[in-house]
Write a structure and sequence with these properties.
Shape: globular
Radius of gyration: 21 Å
Number of strands: 18
Number of domains: 2
Helix content: 10-25%
Low-confidence stretches: 3-38, 197-224
Strand content: 15-25%
Structural class: alpha+beta
Length: 462
């Protein structure tokens, strides 16, 4: 799954890069990665706003030394369908990609690169280090390689993320900055917990195991009968004869971000938690994320440039993502998305603190009918509003809570189901529900939860 998590999964590994080389452009471009030939092609709304005159730099930061490598290559390919800015434009498109040679090849060391992409003669390609075959990702562009990282450096190390962001800000000062984080993830959870209680064969993350046993199972499509889903920051680290996964917590992510960004988009599962948003409130003005998982094909990259770089509208980008998946059929019609303005989170925290204190007995004993955002046994993600409504708060308190939510959640949309999980009462933000957590991990989870800024503000876990 693309689960990004409050705790960013780092499966540390041989970094991969999308390298840029000059070559003659082909006469046509293939898109690839299509699902369901019986579905009608999706066409997004074209109600674009006039071009913003602000100087804007958008960085796609892909940690894809994992089973999402193929999908993320397709995401980059689709970005090329937009209007790539020229070099002297006020708009800057930057891509940092750590890709695996192939989805199942975690043995081949790969370097990673930060590239500045602008219109020009040439192509952006991914070159297979073993076969020498070049896979063209974006046509008719020039790529300046700004940074190169050794294969021993993981894309999910907070130091790597900090170095990349700091370089971008120094290279392009007086810009507004947007960050798109694309990979695996599991919301706010501490390392190793999510997969240890999955309903598929468990593997504790962060534990070393023989390389012959392969990567932790969360790196693979966990149920072959359903579409694959994403998590964030999971990459493979091999040390001698062992291979293991490493993770970066949400607090580390927040600390790695220099200054304050205009927006962060998580193209990763289960990141749409109030815990994640509150932890990042001081480093970004807006956040776009999903409280559920995200299908491995990811968000809607065809309008990436038009929405995020040229016109700076993450709510419209979120709408494109939702409308695309809502137009699908079968299990592919699975999506949930929300856009949050962080300036309203302090008020929301104050309201939730008061409600938690006033209705503590009910919150601590609320039943199983609360809206879930998870599948299987991963019972850490429930709808924030429904937790309190099911705790029998008064109508007046429901109004106060809704007003606080309205000031934060400026866009939200949900398909009727996500891979069979019904989405009926969704406010746009997930929250932990201590009394519903898995008993085997409750002590570990609660101890970690007490360190989060949200719990310090709300005192959900005493």
């Amino acid at each position: 799954m693309r689960t990004l998590r409050n705790i960013l999964w780092i499966v540390a590994a041989m970094a991969v890069m999308a390298a840029c080389i000059k070559q003659s452009a082909p006469t046509h471009r293939g898109e690839g990665g299509s699902e369901g030939s019986e579905e009608e092609p999706y066409s997004p709304n074209t109600d674009y706003l006039p071009y913003s005159q602000d100087s804007t730099a958008v960085l796609l930061y892909s940690a894809a030394f994992n089973n999402l490598s193929k999908d993320i290559k397709e995401n980059i390919r689709k970005i090329g369908g937009g209007q790539i800015p020229v070099k002297n434009s006020r708009k800057k498109l930057l891509i940092f990609a750590h890709l695996a040679r192939a989805n199942d090849d975690y043995e081949t060391p790969m370097k990673s690169h930060l590239v500045w992409v602008y219109a020009g003669e040439g192509n952006m390609v991914f070159k297979d280090p073993l076969t020498g075959i070049a896979d063209t990702l974006i046509h008719n562009v020039h790529c300046d390689t700004l940074l190169t990282f050794d294969a021993s450096v993981t894309a999910c190390d907070p130091t790597t993320l900090h170095q990349v962001l700091e370089f971008v800000q120094n290279k392009f000062p007086e810009h507004k900055y947007g960050l798109v984080l694309s990979s695996h993830g599991t919301g706010w959870l501490p390392a190793g917990v999510y997969n240890s209680t999955n309903y598929y064969p468990p593997v504790m993350l962060g534990k070393k195991r023989p390389a012959s046993e392969g990567l932790p199972l969360y790196l693979y499509n966990q149920n072959p009968s359903e579409p694959a889903v994403r998590t964030f920051g999971a990459e493979a680290v091999k040390e001698g004869k062992v291979i293991y996964s490493k993770e970066m917590g949400i607090t580390s992510l927040a600390s790695a971000i220099p200054g304050k960004l205009e927006f962060i988009i998580f193209d990763a599962c289960l990141m749409g938690c109030v815990e994640v948003a509150y932890e990042l409130r001081n480093v970004t003005e807006s956040i776009c994320f999903s409280p559920t998982e995200i299908l491995s094909a990811g968000m809607y990259y065809e309008t990436f440039i038009d929405r995020l770089l040229a016109r700076d509208r993450i709510d419209k980008y979120a709408e494109d993502y939702f409308r695309y998946y809502n137009s699908r059929v079968g299990t592919s019609r699975s999506a949930a998305v929300a856009v949050v303005r962080t300036e309203g989170l302090e008020t929301l925290a104050q309201i939730c603190k008061e409600l938690t204190l006033t209705y503590r007995e009910h919150v601590d004993t609320v039943g199983t009918d609360v809206q879930k955002y998870f599948r299987g046994n991963n019972s850490w993600f429930y709808d924030l509003k429904d937790i309190y409504v099911q705790s029998h708060i008064s109508l007046e308190d429901q109004k106060r809570l809704q007003l606080a939510l309205d000031a934060c959640v400026v866009y939200k949309a949900f398909t009727p189901e996500f891979l069979g999980l019904q989405l009926l009462r969704c406010c746009g933000l997930a929250m932990y529900l201590p009394n519903r957590t898995v008993k085997s991990s409750k002590e570990t989870v609660n101890a970690y939860y007490r360190t989060l800024a949200w719990n310090n503000a709300v005192n959900l876990v005493e």
